[in-house]
Specification:
Elements: E1 8-17, E2 26-31, E3 45-48, E4 51-59, E5 64-69, H1 71-75, E6 84-90, E7 109-119, E8 122-130, E9 142-145, E10 148-157, E11 161-168, H2 170-174, E12 186-191, H3 193-205
Antiparallel strand pairs: 1-2, 1-6, 2-5, 3-4, 3-6, 4-5, 7-8, 7-12, 8-11, 9-10, 9-12, 10-11
């Protein structure tokens, strides 16, 4: 489990094929901030742009770790098959503060940035969300975008999809990889876990 509070911005330094067919996944070499891996061990869970992955190798002195990502996960996520900056979060400990919201690290869908523009000292982020996820999004509700816990400011529904608007304070922009977003960027989305259970319970009553 995670909270959506990013503790480091890393970089996918290299992408290696695990096989020659489309059914094979990739191995990623990821550079982390200095000292970030000091309390990490083999098998630990780390959310990379919101997707929970398992550490398969690491070198704390070199600030680098490796993960293996399946073809299925690559197909259901964005930004994990090429080099570039990524948001990093270690798994939640029982005694940690829940600063964001409960995040499972399971990507529910991929959205597309439609606007990323300055608004005063902040930035407005708009994301087109796949229609199947629209019902889980609500005004002042929570959503994880590339692993970052964010608050939805508005939801506009259309027949094809929904568009959410989010306000990003300067601190969030500066301390996550969201600063690199632009219209057309694809982002990983995870809906609020509580909304998922509410839907299930309501269906069970009918």
């Amino acid at each position: 489990m995670f909270t959506g509070i990013i503790t480091g911005v890393g970089r996918i330094a290299a992408v290696h094929d695990l096989g020659s067919s489309a059914q094979h996944g990739k191995r990623l070499d990821i550079d982390a901030p200095a000292g970030w891996l000091d309390d990490v061990g083999l098998g630990d869970s780390i959310a990379i742009n919101g997707a929970c992955m398992t550490v398969t190798a690491f070198d704390a002195k070199a600030n680098r770790f490796c993960i293996e990502i399946s073809a299925e996960s690559l197909d259901k996520t964005a930004g994990l098959a090429e080099t570039g900056a990524v948001n990093l979060e270690k798994a939640l400990r029982a005694q940690d503060r829940l600063g964001g919201h409960i995040v499972a690290g399971h990507v529910d869908g991929v959205g597309t940035v439609t606007l990323f523009a300055p608004v005063g000292e902040s930035r407005e982020l708009r994301v087109a969300v796949p229609r199947p996820l629209s019902k889980y999004l609500a005004y002042k509700g929570s959503v994880a975008v590339n692993g970052v816990s964010l608050t939805v400011n508005s939801v506009v529904d259309t027949p094809e999809a929904s568009e959410i608007s989010i306000n990003l304070i300067a601190h969030t922009v500066e301390h996550t990889a969201l600063h690199a977003l632009k219209p057309g960027s694809r982002v990983n989305l995870e809906i609020d876990l509580i909304a998922r259970y509410v839907e299930r319970m309501l269906k069970a009553r009918t």
